[in-house]
Amino acid sequence: MPSTKYLPASPDEVLKLLQDGSYVAERSLATVLHLALQLRRPLFLEGEAGVGKTEIAKVLAETLGRRLLRLQCYEGLDVNSAVYEWNYPRQMVEIRLSEAAGDRDRDTLAEDIFQERFLIERPILQALKPGLAGPPVLLIDELDRSDEPFEAFLLEVLSDYQVTIPELGTVKAPAPPIVIITSNRTREIHDALKRRCFYHWLDYPNAARELEILRLKAPNAPEALAREVVAFVQELRKADLFKLPGIAETIDWADALIQLDKVALDPETIDTTLGVLLKYQDDIARIEGSEAAGILKEVKRAAAAAS
Q: How far apart, in whole angstroms, are the C-alpha atoms of residue 226 and residue 283?
């Protein structure tokens, strides 16, 4: 593994780094990731759910030997959950003990209970603190699920890598963390935040890259089965479905078929395992039966023609 403070010096080294973490990336992704790392800019990854956006942060933390801090966004996310909050139960205990001892006046006590030892650090504040292994990887996951006020708050963090705690002052990172922001594009993210980041759209992989991913993530799958699974999923993504299957679903489906001791796809197996691949009943109802059989027939015909 590289030194903990190592950063890849070229897109080729980024590709190698991701490969070491079993992540198959296109060169365009490796290039923008290289630039984000070297120029210390956040990387904003947008794309459909299940295309591997979150996994990039995990692989970076693992291969670079950095701490991974994950902030999972949701509606109503606020500073208390994302940055810091005071440990009120401990503060109350301190107040009660001080009152019982009578050793401090109110002004002194007010200062004492707002010291760093009473502070609960959340992911963003933790990311601004130095570490022996180097700046951590901060994953701000699914930012589009948060509210616009929280998105606006991030502007200070991403502009100056600092946050202000009224009782303690400003905490500024000695070195910027590696920031990966993801969005499933359920809503548009404001341009002001995007301008502070490098941007990359992560699409569904083509058949060759998805097969390479499947070989890495489901190595026990027979080659013929892996090829049929990838070809079937690729065709399925052309259908008008509410939620298209991502790479994660492809891997799960292959694992399920291995568990069932399947070496090739057949209509009955597809129908009985569609719940692994598709997550909405309307999508399953549309595909199962004749539609799935038709896709499988086309997959096998194409495989026979290519052999």
A: 23
**How many other CB atoms are found less than 10 A from the CB of residue 155?**
14
Count Cα neighbours of 293 within 13 Å in the Cβ-side half-sphere: 4
Residues 199, 209, 11, 129: is their CA dihedral positive or negative? positive
Cβ neighbours of residue 200 under 8 Å, at least 6 residues apart?
Answer: 28, 29, 32, 33, 43, 44, 45, 46
Tokens 């963003």 belong to which residue?
A: 124
Instruction: Please provide the distance, in angstroms rounded to a whole number, between the alpha carbons at the two ends of the chain.
Output: 40
CB 221 within 8 A of CB 254: yes
Helix %, strand %, coil % of the chain (to 5)? 50, 10, 35
What is the DSSP code (8-state) at residue 132? T
Cβ–Cβ < 8 Å for 230, 214: yes
Give the Cα-Cα-Cα angle 214, 210, 59 (nearest 5 degrees).
70
For residue 24, the model assigns a pLDDT of 93
Number of H helices, E strands in the chain: 15, 9
The amino acid at residue 11 is: P
Residue keyed to tokens 């923008």: 32
Six-digit token string for 305: 């023609």
pTM over 0.85: yes
Q: Please give the DSSP secondary-structure letter assigned to residue 181.
A: E
**147-168 average pLDDT score:** 89
Tally the residues of the chain. 307
Please, what's the b/e burial string for 259-268 (b: 16 or more CB within 10 A of its CB; e: otherwise)?
A: eeebeebebe
Half-sphere exposure (CA, 13 Å, Cβ side) for 21?
A: 20
Helix (H) or strand (E) holding 236: helix 223-236
Query: What does the alpha-carbon distance between residue 72 and residue 115 come to, in Å, rounded to a whole number?
Result: 27
Query: Which is higher by pLDDT, 99 or 176?
Result: 176
Instruction: Scan for tokens 């998805």, then name that residue.
Output: 210
